[in-house]
Amino acid sequence: MSIHVRDISKSFGAFKALDRVSLDVPDGTLLALLGPSGSGKTTLLRIIAGLEHADEGVIVEDGEDITERHARQREVGFVFQHYALFRHMSVFENIAFGLRVRKVPTAEVRSRVEELLHLVRLEGLGGRKPAQLSGGQRQRVALARALAIRPKILLLDEPFGALDAKVRVELRQWLRRLHDEIGMTSVFVTHDQEEAFELADEVVVMNHGKIEQQGTPDAVFDQPATPFVMDFLGNVNVFHGRVENGRAFWHGIPIDYPDYPHAQARDARVYLRPHELEISPLSGNGQAVTGNGRASGSLPASVLRVTRNGAITRVACRPHGSDAELQVDVPTEVARGLQMDLVPGAHVAITPRKARVFLPGPEYVI
Ligand code: ADP
Ligand code: MG
User: What is the predicted pLDDT for the residue at 293?
Assistant: First the structure.
């Protein structure tokens, strides 16, 4: 079942929660809606589910306009962040609920629930009450309940948000396998970029009720379409630079930027990811050992702090002649192999392997 969302807008009073949102979820895809709190993810998911009405726009499933169809007629399974299990009912009855409402014969309910208990690895726990389960087990019950009606579409709203980190990682890997086994189309809401990238075939980044970018995790990570996406996908160094004649300059280091071929210089912002910067010792005369200082694309800097975080060594430095701070992430093994001690005060050369340049948007134009 494919889903096409076309120009959906939704306001709550004067507040525009969704502003002409369009996206495509191809059949069999697991798509993640990723964005900060308040960006409109839940509202969009509820509109896809038929639990909320859009002011404008259409939802098309497999070529059919279902915008006006009620949630119950949409064959969607929905999993919320906070389990939303019926506390007074057993696990078995929670999972059976949708089947009972649909008047499925008792024998069929029994075999279907047993099958689902097996699928979510909760065999033998059908008689328990939700309070007698761990958080991870409860969320698996919620998932089994959503799957009971054999939905063509599974919608999950931060389903693992309330669980601790270890359980969350286990459950998302399990959800990915389950999605593939069942062959559903799923939309998964999260504000956690690691979760989105690990799980999803497609990622949609949302901000202020709009879509900033849709693409595969690799495409979104490697070619972030906007400064917001770049910022949101984890920690990044941001610097002011300028751009002219197809090149931007960061502390005098040229970076190709063919999108701006004009001679008139403009302010630009340069984004550098910590793991896309290399660090090497500076020779005694202040030049980079490999090449010819700044002209070769290296920036002399002093080390401020070094923190080891397992496999990654995080080095905070200050470029010479600047009061900016730059963060560099080096694999700890590489840091150990350097012909120098990475200690505060040490002089290093920083070489960007990759940098991204964004011109300020129209709001910055004077
Ligand atoms: P997200 O799930 O990305 O955190 P939501 O879709 O829940 O975002 O909310 C988007 C914005 O719309 C928020 O600012 C929220 O306060 C507002 N909003 C959501 N639902 C309602 C509602 N029923 N009434 C008024 N405002 C709402
Ligand atoms: Mg939400």
Answer: 27
> How far, in Å, is the centroid of ligand 1 from the Cα of 47?
12
Spacing, Cα 42 to ligand 2 middle (Å):
4
**What would the mean pLDDT of 210-228 be, rounded to a whole number?**
91
Residue 199: give the domain boundaries.
3-218
Question: What CATH number did the domain enclosing 79 receive?
Answer: 3.40.50.300
Residue 273 and residue 185 share a domain: no
pTM of the full structure: 0.82
Count of domains observed in the chain: 2
Residues with CB under 6 A from ligand 1: 12, 17, 35, 37-43
326/193 same-domain check: no
Minimal-distance CA residue to ligand 1 atom 22: 12
Residue 137 lies in a domain: yes
Burial 1-29 (b: 16+ CB within 10 A, else e): bbbbbbebebeeeeebbbbebebebeeeb
Which ligand approaches the C-alpha of residue 38 most closely?
A: 1
Helix (H, G, I), strand (E, B) or coil at 139: helix
pLDDT in tens, 303-318: 999 999 889 999 999 9
